[in-house]
Amino acid sequence: MPPGHDEPRVAIDYTELRGRSYRCIDHCALCCLCQPELLPEEEAEFRATPELADAVTEKHISPETRGPGIKLKGAHGACWFLENRRCRIYERRPHFCRTFPINVFVGRRVQLNANFSCRGIGLPGERLERAGREVVASYGLRRLWYELGKAGAVYDQFEENCREARVMQSASSVREAAKALLDDLVDPIGLSRILTYAVSGETSQNSAAKEIVRYVRRTDPEEDIEETAITIATELFDLPELSYLPVYIDESLRWRIYKLVSGKIVGYVLSDDGGISEVSSTEPSEVDLVRFGTGGAAAMKSYLRLVNARDCFLGHAAYMCDAEDYQYNFAQVYLGVLAHNALDLWWRSSFLAHLESGQELGTKEVKEGIVFFDMDLLDLPSIGAFI
After folding, report:
1. Torsions phi, psi of 194, nearest 5?
2. Measured between alpha carbons, how far is 367 from 104 in angstroms, rounded to an integer?
3. Per-residue pLDDT band at 4 (split at 50, 70, 90)
4. Which residue of 64, 102, 191, 220 shows the fewest CB atoms closer than 10 Å?
5. What confidence tier does 213 reach under pLDDT thresholds 50, 70, 90?
6. What is the mean pLDDT of the chain?
7. What digits encode the pLDDT tens for the residues 183-205?
8. Band of the pLDDT at 3, cuts 50, 70, 90?
9. What is the C-alpha to C-alpha distance for residues 348 and 238, in angstroms, rounded to an integer?
């Protein structure tokens, strides 16, 4: 604890929640596909209660996750306690179930994010900021201050590594550069230019945002984004376990998953118990990047602006910079990761439009892509941590 303070001072950012409302949609249960971890006190209660004890497991969807959690039906279905799309232990559900669709990320500050894969966000109902403040209160400022100390030490080490490798850029400079490049991120040539810059550009350490943008715009656009999009898509769906695949909840509240099978993207509807039924089959090469129509580009830029402000996304870029052994300037890594994810979202929106025989991406089509995409974005590895 800092001396002379009864409570620590903790910087908390509620910007992403501000002005938004939320209502849980009956029989949606998308959150019940997110396998919750159990806090220590919850584990003790679950193991001591006969009707809860059988649901505790050490096996998680993510192999990196350690500690107790709740079983899934059929290994990749819904939560053990879901029955007819209703929670059987709703009043006793774990902490991480209660906080959905709000995520709390600790980096240089505490920031609250909304999970836009949840179809309840934007519906009339509870104010997300108020719900977020209740989540923060449940942790307490002392816990948050402690978590900030741990995350801060990781960020300090990352920045020291960047300086030693002479690839350092400030968070403000890369974010300002990304903001200036929003139009490029929704344009085929601009997106190609940014992706090319990410792997072959030149950037001086500690450049101002204007300099970074200048570096980008003098790069020749050599990346074939249609080819790159197909690579992203095939990698996205070419996973060994159904539980690893992205989930899209459609407008009729069906859980839909897609898997690469014998070179085709096969679509399934997932049932509560983990059963699947095939509903579509698509050749990846059939899916072109659909052009943006009225409102589509604006919706895409609005979402990318939000992503650019997320500390967990900044932390993901830092994670990737470290994973690549600081070979590239942090501006190249950050903008490359942002462009890669923009292309992923563009392709997912196009894929869903293709299934519906859509000819352009308007506001609605981009929103559906975001529903398909945001949960996966929030699940990317990052320095810092969701708590």
Report:
1. -65, -45
2. 23
3. very low
4. 64
5. very high
6. 94
7. 999 999 999 999 999 999 989 99
8. very low
9. 15
Encoding tokens for residue 136? 């923060």
Distance separating alpha carbons of residues 31 and 118, to the nearest angstrom: 8
In the chain the first and final C-alpha atoms are separated, in Å, by 20
Question: How many separate helices (H) and strands (E) can be counted in the chain?
Answer: 14, 14
User: Is 77:271 a contact under the CB 8 Å cutoff?
Assistant: yes
Please list, residue by residue across 297-321, b when 16 or more beta carbons sit within 10 angstroms of its beta carbon and e when fewer do: bebbbebbebbbbbbbbbbbbbbbb
Single-letter amino acid code for the residue at 242: L
120: three-class secondary structure by DSSP = coil
Enter the tokens of residue 311: 């500390």
**Per-residue pLDDT tens for 249-273?**
999 999 999 999 999 999 999 998 8
DSSP codes, 222-252: ---HHHHHHHHHHHHH--SSGGGS-EEE-TT
- The whole-number average pLDDT for the span 43-59 is 92
Provide the H-helix boundaries in 91-237: 95-99, 128-139, 141-165, 171-180, 182-185, 188-200, 209-217, 225-237
For 91, counting Cβ atoms within 10 Å of its Cβ (0-12 exposed, 13-18 middle, 19+ buried), the class is exposed
Burial (CB < 10 A; 0-12, 13-18, 19+), residue 216, is buried
**Whether the Cβ atoms of residue 36 and residue 69 lie closer than 8 Å to each other:** yes
Tens-place pLDDT, residues 95-135: 999 999 999 999 999 999 999 999 999 999 999 999 999 99
Domain parsing of the chain, residue ranges: 154-227+286-386
